[in-house]
Structure formats: structure tokens, C-alpha cells
Write a structure and sequence with these properties.
The protein contains eleven helices and seven strands. By secondary structure, it is of the alpha/beta class. The strands form two sheets. It has a five-stranded parallel β-sheet with strand order 3-2-1-4-5, with helices on both faces. The relative contact order is 0.16.
Length: about 270
């Protein structure tokens, strides 16, 4: 049983200079500009019942089943999510440098002999992906694959629009054997969480040692600020009981709650 001092130290590690909120004196509590999508950094040492409840928040079965069928039709694959629109606008840089960084990250962790599934918000930007596609000759653009091979099944879903299509793409990527996504993208974060959740439910022999807890990315995510990044993952350079203590991102502590997902989001549910 930890002492009060040990628990306080752990709480301070968890908060990482963020405000510590305890039992707000209000029946309805409004949190302004906070992202509870990445709840791992909000609830300190939640009881097991919390994770059991979280696991019951599920996508409707027809969409999950459809994504599983698409995944089976692809066979075993690696997946990459490249978000371009926001980053071209908000993080202007030379695109040849961005392409080179993405390609370097992918080469570090993906086998070019295996199928690479590409999910992106700009599939029409073929020129941007030319070098990546040349390095990984076995590839498909996920949205095109679904339209060409599974359009009829998609039309049978209970509700269909662009959001439903994006959800299906996200669910399919969650079946990847290995995945690298875009830093700062909640779309990527959902896939990381899904892969980790699936991994914890499978025999350990199905996965490389510690692989599911390594959330990989297509690049550093910071153009000018220093950050430790290797093999498509942020390198732990500090001490602490939580993964966000050990990864030194050059952003305010509170921003870590929306910038990426963390392995603490998923625990084995018994």
C-alpha cells in the first residue's frame, strides 16, 4: 500500500504541472476547451470499473463488421495515416523535406515486401506520395480500395456519408499489423488506441515484444523545435511512472492531452 507521500508524488507526476481538479462543487461541470477524447491524462488512477465502462462505448456493430471484412480482404498489412490538409496550412515547410521525413520513418519500421495501406485526407495528391509508393510497391490507397471493392456493401450500412466513410477507414486501419500515423491527429490517435486494445486481447505471440505500446508516427511533428525521435517513435529520455513523463515533447503539458494518444488509455479488462 503506497504511503500518502508516494501517492502525492505519483499524482504530481500524473498532473505534470497541470491543475489538479478534485470533486467540483457543482451538479453540472463544464470543461472549456479540453479534449476528453484522450482521457488517459484526465482521470488519475481510475478504478477498474472505469475501463470496463469505457470498453462498452463501442462503434455500432455493422460498421465494425464491415471494416473487419475489408481487413480480411486485404490480408495482413501495415498501415499509414498521412494527414496533409491541416499540416500544409498550419505547419508550412518544404514539401520535399516532409516527404523525405515520412519516407525515412516508414523505411525504419515497414518491410517494403509487405502490403502498405495508405489512409490520407488528400488521396488526389499523388505527386506527394510518389516516392513513398515507389519504395513500397505493394500498396493501396484505402479509400480507393473501399470504393472499388466494397462500394455495394458500404451502401447497405445504416447511415452513410463522408463521416461514416472516414469511420470505416479508421476501423480498417485499426486492424493493421503495424501502423504509423500523423502527430497531432485525433484520427491517428483512435487507430493507436484500437490497435493496442486488440493486442491486449490477443496471445502475446501474435505481437513483437512491446510493439503494441510503441505508438509510431510518420515524422517528428515539430519543424524547428528539438525532440528525440527514432524508428518512427518518440524516444523516452526522462524518468517517471507515466509515458508522458518520459517523452519530452516541446509543447505545454496541457497540450499533450490533445496532441497524441498514450498507452495508458487502454488496460486489460477482466
Amino acid at each position: 500500500m503506497p504511503t500518502a507521500a508516494e501517492m502525492l508524488a505519483r499524482l504530481n507526476y500524473f498532473a505534470e504541472r497541470r491543475p489538479i481538479l478534485v470533486d467540483p462543487p457543482a451538479e453540472v461541470w463544464h470543461l472549456d476547451r479540453l479534449n476528453l477524447g484522450y482521457y488517459s491524462r484526465f482521470f488519475f488512477d481510475p478504478p477498474p470499473g472505469f475501463h470496463r465502462i469505457i470498453e462498452r462505448v463501442e462503434i455500432a456493430a455493422p460498421y465494425c463488421e464491415f471494416a473487419a471484412r475489408i481487413s480480411r480482404s486485404l490480408g495482413e498489412f501495415g498501415a499509414v495515416h498521412v494527414r496533409l490538409t491541416d499540416f500544409r496550412r498550419d505547419h508550412p515547410r518544404r514539401e520535399d523535406e516532409y516527404r523525405a521525413e515520412i519516407l525515412s520513418s516508414l523505411r525504419a519500421v515497414f518491410d517494403p515486401a509487405n502490403l502498405l495501406v495508405v489512409s490520407t485526407d488528400e488521396p488526389e495528391s499523388r505527386a506527394f506520395f510518389a516516392g513513398i509508393l515507389a519504395a513500397f510497391p505493394k500498396h493501396v490507397f484505402l479509400d480507393e480500395f473501399i470504393v472499388q471493392e466494397h462500394a455495394a456493401d458500404f451502401r447497405t450500412l445504416p447511415f452513410i456519408d463522408e463521416t461514416a466513410f472516414g469511420l470505416v477507414c479508421n476501423l480498417v486501419a485499426g486492424h493493421a499489423r503495424r501502423f504509423a500515423g500523423t502527430p497531432g491527429s485525433t484520427f491517428t490517435g483512435m487507430i493507436h488506441r484500437a490497435i493496442l486494445r486488440r493486442a491486449l486481447a490477443m496471445p502475446k505471440s501474435r505481437w513483437l515484444a512491446d510493439e503494441p505500446t510503441i505508438f509510431r508516427f510518420i515524422g517528428r511533428g515539430f519543424d524547428t523545435k528539438p525532440v528525440s525521435f527514432a524508428n518512427a517513435a518518440y524516444v523516452e529520455t526522462r524518468e517517471g511512472p507515466f509515458s508522458w513523463n518520459r517523452v519530452d515533447l516541446p509543447i505545454p503539458s496541457g497540450a499533450k492531452s490533445w496532441y497524441r494518444e498514450w498507452p495508458e488509455a487502454v488496460v486489460p479488462v477482466v
